[in-house]
Amino acid sequence: MKPPGTAALRLTGLATSIILAIAAFAGTSTKAQGASEGSAATAIAWNIIAVNTVRAATPAIFQVEGLIYMSYVQASVYDAVTKIEGRYQPYHHFTAPVDKAGASPDAAVAAASYTALAYYFPAQAGTLGTTYTSYLAGLPAAGKHAGVAIGVAAAEDIIALRTGDGRDAPISTPYGQGPLTPGVWIFAPPPSAQSAQTPWVAFMKPFMLESPSQFRPGPPLQLNSNKYATQLAEVQAYGSATSTVRTVEQTNIAEFWNANAINQVNQTQRDLASAHGFDLVETARGLAMANLTDSDAGIACFDAKYYYTFWRPVTAIQHADIDGNPRTTADPTWTPLLITPNHPEYPAAHGCLTSSDAEVAAELLGTHRIEINIAGAVGQNVTTLTTSRHYATVEDLDRQIVNARVWAGLHFRDSG
After folding, report:
1. For 283, which of 43, 50, 76, 91 could close a Cys bridge (C-beta 3.0–4.6 Å)?
2. Spatial CA neighbour of 192 closest among 381, 404, 346
3. Tens digits of per-residue pLDDT, 89-129?
4. Other Cβ atoms within 10 Å of 81 Cβ, number
5. Residues with Cβ < 8 Å from 41, sequence gap 6 or more?
6. Which one, of 356, 334, 312, lies nearest residue 63 by Cα?
7. φ, ψ for residue 183 (rounded to 5)?
8. How far is it between the farthest Cα atoms of the chain?
9. Integer Cα distance of 416 and 400 in angstroms
10. Dihedral sign for Cα atoms in the order 167, 172, 176, 181
11. Cα–Cα distance measured from residue 360 to residue 290, given in angstroms and rounded to the nearest whole number
């Protein structure tokens, strides 16, 4: 089994650095005086509502983009909970509009979630409002009004903080449109989408990093190098839709990691919280850490993608006759196991996000021996979560995601 690529290792360093930034969340303050215990189930239930809302949006919201929206919600929830319960430093300080003593944390979680979701997804506000009203009706009256006020204030603070952050900003550069040039990304042939996926992510304001380029990795492989020829031959053999060397298990692993990242990241964190008996504060903290860390990892990843605009294996293999490397062989009919995403190859987004997830789990559990279950997909080009795999360590998880993207035919090993 080959080691992770250099980009994966570089972006694992990114994840670690973001964890250090999130350590600002991890103050040593004690429980706030007069605080009322809330339920971890509330944070989990409203996280599921948030994920379903993001996934139901039209037009469809893509992987990193969806995690950015989830970050708005989970930052709001985390700030609301810590305003009432204390224990950790908030993501962003805001002034509580009411006395927090005795305020209901459950009401605060619901109000923060609903306020953020209704703002960012107004088309779903009616359905969200019905769910919200029903949920509040089931809570005890004591502290409910104060909890709602704090939750609303937390969300409104995050909304104001993130206004003008570059989300969905127009991009005029015609990424991916050609002409065909050695090493330069162009849209993969259909069924890959013939448009550039969320290039604005590369330029938006991160949640914790100083800038999108703060941890930009070095350039991708040189086309005329031996290493490039070796890695192209590997993905050409193992990542082909008709590969005769990829094993059944390798195929299953490649397909497993084609799961939707928005669902996968959040279910993983919910499952971790439940398995380890996290209370409301720890659950809200974990969900905030996972989504904000992944968002910043995704922003940094897309910065590098749209800075280097390196071509995908399908283009590199079909047009190896123009790469200037005598050690590569073109195959104009080659296709990958999975549909090629419509953004540049380097670095691999799944490598960026999954290494971040692994570091979040390690931070929360205090060990790299994370013993974690992650849900994934079964079948070619399927994205729904229908199975799970167990990972004993951070290193096991990092290693597998790099292999998976090679076996899927989507990335060179050094991009993992």
Report:
1. 43
2. 381
3. 999 999 999 999 999 999 999 999 999 999 999 999 999 99
4. 33
5. none
6. 356
7. 85, -5
8. 75
9. 10
10. negative
11. 6
